[in-house]
What does this fold into?
Amino acid sequence: MYDFDKVVDRRGTSSIKWNFQDGFGQHDGLLPYWIADTDFATVPEIMQAIQHRCDHPIIGYSDPLPGVYKAIQGWWSRHYDWTPDTDWMLLSYGVVTGIYFTLDAVVPKGSKVLVFTPVYDPFFAAVNNSGHTLVDCPLDYENNYYTINWQRFEDELKNGVQAVVFCNPHNPIGRVWTAQEMERLCALCAQYNVYLLSDEIHADFGLTRKYTTAGHYQNVYDKLVVYTAISKSFNMAGLGSSCMIIPNPELKARIQEAYDSRWMFGPSDLAFTAMEAAYNHGDRWMEEQCDYLRGNVELVNAFMAEHLPQVKVTRHEGTFLMWLNMNCLGKTSAELTTIMAKEYGIALGDGSHYGKQADGFMRFNIGCARSTLQKGLDQLAKMYKDYMK
Ligand SMILES: Cc1ncc(COP(=O)(O)O)c(C=O)c1O
It folds into this structure.
């Protein structure tokens, strides 16, 4: 058994989560539940592999050896019933970088690119900064649960959308899209011949059901890119190590060409080393991490129901990011962020960043030891008591 209860002191490392909290009106010292890395010590074999690699005195320009691709393939094949060809894989520094490159190199400039909101906010920047027009397709929200408004989606496709940037499992709303939803999404993308950029970085956090990769649907293969990484799954976000899976060789060549022509050398050898070790040795750790997170979700649900009964907790299916509707407090997300930081010493994510309709919501990162989570909950309960008066 791995010890997820262990509190790992991250202060003194260059952790953004723990050290750099300027956005909250206070530099540091807050208990952090915001940016999306966890506080869990990673799989020991990953760190051993990195240490072993460092026994060699040179880390030069690097290209992955076949074992890295095989390890990625093995993970998807064992866990998600999909065996992507190793030739489809292109490694990159990060998922967001990969999305930028795809939008920049492949999707014709000025295209309409659709996102389902509320969603991870760098999607907006990636679309806007690569010269496209953002199409906001708000999700339906009912009974603390989000679903795709299929009619609205199809109307937008008819209106000329050329690409969809999809998040699966979906940050920040915690949905793990079902196989039926994925099938319908892919069928529509195929019918309207649009690019599907499927960000599956939270793949391994399907807590109530296994996630379904877009890779299962061959009807979208002409225009599909799946983005994966070890950064969330194994708490390795600082290493810059992700993978694009692109079944269409012509599409892959164009993205590769865009990458190479900008003189990007891809992730470092340390990142390759970590990926290989993670996907070869991380199965049991990942399983236990998900069990632990299920316990954290249960704790949040029970605590909120008892101590913050009017806060609406979005039904949580996956990721380590919970989505709280705090509109009962009558404050904007920005106001809540400041109050939480200045008066209660905690840092949560400002929900309004994720979409126009998300003001009054906060994103709560529960990827921490239960004792740390309890401290945050206690502070939230104090705030609720003071402000619901
Ligand atoms: C949905 C999603 N995509 C991408 C990222 C960032 O990935 P990377 O650091 O590999 O660019 C995050 C981080 O929170 C995320 O939640």
Q: What stands out?
A: The first helix runs from residue 16 to 19. The two ends are 44 Å apart (CA to CA).
